């Protein structure tokens, strides 16, 4: 699920991706809304979720074990089929 709020007025909520599988095969949707109350709620949700996250930096990725990096690269090759 993806959410976006812009300027406290406009919001976009949905699941669509810009890849071939999503555009041709999957039934995905987006909801666009011009509502200040909804934008405020989504802003609060985004702020809440982002405070508990971990920033991905080059140093963080370089510190991962070779096994984890190999797993991630293999998963990337399979992305078109997932």
In words, what does this structure look like?
- The chain has one domain (2-81).
- It is 48% helix and 18% strand.
- The protein has 4 helices and 3 strands.
- A 3-stranded antiparallel beta sheet has the order 1-2-3, covered by helices on one side.
- The radius of gyration is 17 Å and the shape is flat.
- The mean pLDDT is 88.
What's the structural blueprint in terms of helices and strands?
Elements: E1 2-6, E2 10-14, H1 20-24, E3 30-34, H2 36-51, H3 58-62, H4 66-78
Antiparallel strand pairs: 1-2, 2-3
Structure, briefly:
It is built from four helices and three strands; from the N terminus they run ββαβααα.
Q: What number of domains?
A: 1
Shape: flat
- Helical fraction equals 40-55%
* Cα-to-Cα separation, first versus last residue: 16 Å
How would a textbook summarize the main sheet? 3 strands, antiparallel
Identify the notable features of this structure and list them briefly.
82 residues, alpha+beta, 3-stranded antiparallel sheet, 4 helices, 18% strand, flat
């Amino acid at each position: 699920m993806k959410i976006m709020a812009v300027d406290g007025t406009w919001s976009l909520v949905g699941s669509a991706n810009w890849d071939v599988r999503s555009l041709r095969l999957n039934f995905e949707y987006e909801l666009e809304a011009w509502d200040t109350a909804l934008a405020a709620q989504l802003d609060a949700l985004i702020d809440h979720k982002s405070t508990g996250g971990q920033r991905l930096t080059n140093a963080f990725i370089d510190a991962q074990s070779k096994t984890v990096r190999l797993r991630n690269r293999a998963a990337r090759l399979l992305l078109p089929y997932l």
